[in-house]
């Protein structure tokens, strides 16, 4: 049966289980839009390609299946590159389809022509161009396999418009590959035997490949072995933070006592995490050239072990499978309970709210949210110092409740919240954003309105790019340059898009305003006007500049 390339492409997506795609339409992939017309796949039409890619990346984080995005050539692709970079650094499966110029016009610098292999080559797992309509099933199947295999990541497929509109008679793929996973029982036994030779071990868990079952298995393993567990940057929902063995997370504003515990440890069992510069505070907690401790590194990509730190022991396995094997093992003869209790005590002291300046205290707001939101509420954020309050004071209770970029990309939180609200319409979705962060993607309020997403956005407004201002005060005190912001009335902006909006100026006013936002039945923006004196959870300005 002859079909045009757009119909062939969409049929492969159906067979691979794709339920939703994200896009900004372009004339370069009209045939794909035609294929989506009656396919039963939800096409979430966004307002800018950066939002497209970020929503698709968030979908990949939530489901473990590739988030699918469609953008047009040239400017559309360059806009989407921010989301591709997030997917790469966060190890998130994603497939980006980019419309491309006609094949016959290549290398003429035709309208919006870009060499996508060169452009995306360093920020994607695989980039290629499909030049034969009858090979679309082959390329799409491979794209989904590459996106999910080993360390997951983004794949970019360029689709020349004449290839996509041409017709071909080609069989469809059968569907996803069924992969049988090994039990890893003996490997887990050997790893635990290795770990039992140390007095002060610390387990660090992060990276991709996680699930509610894995979170339970991690809790079981930690309890049975009496081991302390630290979570990687923005992977705080990998273990119930109320677990007595939870020691905190290794983030940008790390608990100094947890950082010291890494220095004092004599062994690290690293599961899933790349053990990157955030977890190691710029590679200072553990020296790559001469580590002060032994390392066992468990990672799905064998190329990652020894990439920065050369481990004493390496295991090639995904975190879910490995922790399942560890959870089945009996306790060793080693007693690490005192070391673990001390780590937990450090975390409990760290999450005790420390007062910051102003009438609206963010530490109290986050504590209220932590105590009052449903346990399955999903919290998203982008980048900025405001996120430090969330990381420090919010207690994550189950897996699947945190969506945040380990790449540190501003603007991510709101598109991620839209994606989460569409995927889980029965769950409360909260986006934390700074005034600078939110304005990078707030145009997607229109997308939320069109598609019925209902996140509540909490905009922390201090009138500046707070993180950069903090660094200015450290390195060039009193010389404020390029960090001030003139902002709109964020509450009025939400109302202009048809949502609920309120401005909150005191701590006491937050809870009632939040409850009204919940009851509004639509998306909402709560603008929190906070003091400019508060630089971070533990630092303030001596005076206004």
Report how far apart the termini are: 71 Å
Q: How many domain units?
A: 3
CATH classification, class level of the largest domain: Alpha Beta
The residue-averaged pLDDT reads: 95
Q: What's the number of helices?
A: 20
CATH topology of the largest domain: Rossmann fold
Cα radius of gyration in angstroms = 24 Å
How would a textbook summarize the main sheet?
6 strands, parallel
The low-confidence parts are none
Sum up the overall morphology in one term: globular
Spatially, the strands of the biggest sheet line up as 3-2-4-5-7-6
State the CATH superfamily name of the largest domain. Thiamin diphosphate (ThDP)-binding fold, Pyr/PP domains
| Strand percent estimate | 15-25%
| Total strand segments | 20
Under the CATH scheme, which architecture of the largest domain would be assigned? 3-Layer(aba) Sandwich
Structural class: alpha/beta
Features:
37% helix, alpha/beta, Rossmann fold, 20 helices, 17% strand, six-stranded parallel β-sheet, 20 strands, 3 domains, 545 residues
